[in-house]
Amino acid sequence: MTQLARVATTDTEVCGSKVPEDTRISLCYAAANRDETVFECPNEVKFDRKVNPHVAFGFSIHNCLGSTHARALMNLLIPSLLEKVGRIQLYEAEENIEELGEFNRKVGFHKLNAQFYPA
Fold first, then answer.
1. Burial of 41 (0-12, 13-18, 19+ CB in 10 A)
2. pLDDT in tens, the chain (119 residues)
3. How many of the other CB atoms lie within 10 Å of CB of 93?
4. Residue 26 lies in a domain
5. For residues 117 and 85, is the Cβ–Cβ distance under 8 A?
6. Could you tell me if residue 7 is inside a domain?
């Protein structure tokens, strides 16, 4: 899940947009990881990025239970990948687009075909 949805209980305004009562609103917190005011070149993978206040695993008391396991796996995978792979060629990418009423958002890929070339 990459979003948190609620229904407005009264007419209100959010960031200059009017939100009528009984309107479904959603916070897509995965988009926060691509905030250009926080991340320089947010759509690029930068392994040496020092400051990384991403919210991919949630935050505070809403932290993902699997986050420690995922970080441990990435700490093993990335150095091994960088040591063995010199270049990655992307051939085909079929995006997974989630439709939420009038809104569409990318939540990953259905298919991602790539070739890895040795270092």
1. exposed
2. 567 788 999 999 988 999 999 998 887 776 777 788 888 888 887 877 776 777 777 777 778 888 889 889 989 998 999 899 999 999 999 999 888 777 777 878 899 999 999 99
3. 11
4. yes
5. yes
6. yes
What gap in Å lies between CA 30 and CA 106, rounded to an integer? 10
Please state the length of the chain. 119
5 within some domain: yes
Classify residue 95: in a domain, yes or no. Answer: no
Whole-prediction pTM: 0.52
Residues 6+ apart with CB under 8 A from 89: 114, 115, 117
CA–CA distances in Å: residue 56 to residues 28, 38, 62: 11, 14, 11
